[in-house]
Amino acid sequence: MTPTQTEGPPAPPAARTAAPPEKRAPENAAQTAPERHGPEEMRDELDENPPKASSGRPRRWPWIVGALALAVVAIIFLAGARQERLRRDADAKARPRAVSVVTAAARTGDMPVYLTGLGTVTALNTVTVRSRVDGELATVAFREGQIVQKGDLLALIDPRPFQVQLEQASGQLAKDEAALQNARLDLERYKVLAAQDAVPKQQLDTQAATVAQSEGVLKTDQGQVDAARLNLVYTRITAPISGRVGLRLVDAGNQIHATDPNGLVVLTQVQPIAVIFTLPEDQLNAVRDRLRQGRKLPVDAFDRDLKRKLATGELATVDNQIDTTTGTVKLKAIFPNADDGLFPNQFVNPRLLIDTLKGVVLVPNAAIQRGTQSTFVFAVKEDQSVEVRPVEVQLTEGDTTAISKGLSAGDVVVTEGVDKLQAGSKIETGRPGAPASAGAPAPQSKSASSAARS
Predict the structure, then answer these.
(1) What is the dihedral of CA 415, 418, 423, 429, to 10 degrees?
(2) What pLDDT, on a 0 to 100 scale, did the predictor assign at position 29?
(3) Contacts 24+ apart (CB under 8 A), 142-146
(4) Are 279 and 352 in contact (CB under 8 A)?
(5) pLDDT tens digits, residue range 2-22?
(6) Could you tell me the pLDDT band of residue 229, with boundaries at 50, 70 and 90?
(7) Are 99 and 253 within 8 A, CB to CB?
(8) 3-state secondary structure (DSSP) of residue 189
(9) Which of 109, 281, 361, 430 is deepest in the core (most CB within 10 A)?
């Protein structure tokens, strides 16, 4: 055996590889390190050479697992909350939304029945004041628009020419009276002489005719005196009726004539005053029946917009014929007009009270809806929803409608906001005049509100 064989097999390469410096103990460690065997020596050794920490996996995995579990729980909780919120939103969208409306309760009352026509205020008397004699207008004694009474002085014409005419006529009358007196005396003498056959009978007859002629002349003179005196009276122009004077048409100082077409002023009687109005011929019998019964039919005069009542009067009469071109009949009502509420030629809307419905169900006009099939209202139920209820309208007057069938007193109906309603819609009551809204959510309970906030 060779020397190499006696040394044994060669060491593997790994065995030959030198250990890392940090793990290879010094060759002389046993010689250099002091020998320590007690606890103090061991503690000092540990302090000088602390043991290296391990990889940490056995100690950190519980914390990692706990964190993952908490994350999973949080994800599950957030997912559940999101699903709950989505579900609430879907329920809120599916739930009917309340509509803001205005309501009114049906009530029982009396409904007057009126017949409304078109009319014109007409003065009972209208006079154009004119002069009856020719002369100079000396004085205007009225103010424009003044209320005058019958016999009040309106104007004065210069009376002097008429006084002269009266004096001339009176003088002629006196002259003819003297001539008549002389003729009568001569007639008496002739009668005595004729009885004695002193004068012919023809002369007696002639004297009698002279006396009769003088008497005729005297009557003519008296007529002239009366005419002159009357013309003198006519120089004072007075009001022929009581009423209101209009605008002055002639000023003082002008020469006026009895033939002037315009006159001095127009005088109208305004207290009382009349209203002439028309009604359809179909309503004539109802009016005539009540007039035959002796009933007094009140008439109210309203303005053009039928909003303000001007005066109250009474029906006076019905015309005696129907206008065939319009199919209407004229009626005349008399108004005291103590407050001058009516003015001549004013356009008015007369309303004739013909009857009164007693104890009917009344609702505002705004509650009445008209469909293709029937007339209906939106009635409010106890659960604050509405139903479509058909009704029968008996009469509409002003802003109120009388219902003959379909409603009872106390029923609540919708008057504003009906354009956004349908059968079963939820409502909430708003203030009159407030705009109706379809976006207001339905009222929620306290628990629902809390859930929504969470």
Answers:
(1) -60
(2) 41
(3) 142/245, 142/248, 142/265, 143/245, 144/245, 144/246, 144/247, 144/248, 145/244, 145/245, 145/246, 146/244, 146/245
(4) yes
(5) 333 444 444 444 434 344 444
(6) very high
(7) no
(8) helix
(9) 361
Given a contact cutoff of 8 angstroms between Cβ atoms, the answer to whether 283 and 166 are in contact is no
d(CA 399, CA 367): 10
Amino acid found at 33? A
Q: Based on C-alpha coordinates, what's the Rg of the chain?
A: 62
**Side chain identity, residue 427:** I
Q: What is the pLDDT confidence band of residue 67, given thresholds at 50, 70 and 90?
A: confident
- How far apart are alpha carbons 288 and 354 in whole angstroms? 11
DSSP state of 426: B
Q: Residue 353 corresponds to which tokens in the numbers above?
A: 């009270």
CA distance 335 to 133: 37
Instruction: Provide the Cα torsion 307, 308, 314, 319; round to 10°.
Output: -50
Query: Which run of H or E residues covers position 318?
Result: strand 309-323
Site of tokens 């209407």? 328
State the DSSP string of 50-99: PPPP---HHHHHHHHHHHHHHHHHHHHHHHHHHHHHHHHHHHHHHSPPPE
The torsion of the CA quartet 204, 205, 208, 210, rounded to 10 degrees, works out to -100
Q: By C-alpha distance, which of 372, 370, 410, 409 is closest to 391? A: 370
Secondary structure of residue 231 in the 3-state scheme: helix
Please report how many Cα atoms fall inside a 13 Å half-sphere around the Cα of residue 249, on the Cβ side. 15
How far is the C-alpha of 381 from the C-alpha of 377, rounded, in Å?
Answer: 12
Q: What would the two tokens of residue 239 be?
A: 């009001």
Structure tokens at 112: 């007057």
What are the tens digits of pLDDT across the range 278-302?
A: 999 999 999 999 999 888 999 999 9
- Three-state SS at 159: coil
pLDDT tens for 80-96 read: 888 878 777 766 565 55
Q: Residue holding tokens 């006076």? A: 316
Cis peptide before 96 (omega within 30 of 0): no
Kindly report the number of other CB atoms within 10 A of residue 259's CB atom.
Answer: 8
Q: Average per-residue pLDDT in the chain?
A: 81
Percentage of residues of the chain with pLDDT beyond 70: 80
User: Beta-carbon neighbour count of residue 450 at 10 Å?
Assistant: 10
Residue with tokens 């995995």: 61
Closest CA to 244 of 121, 139, 161: 121
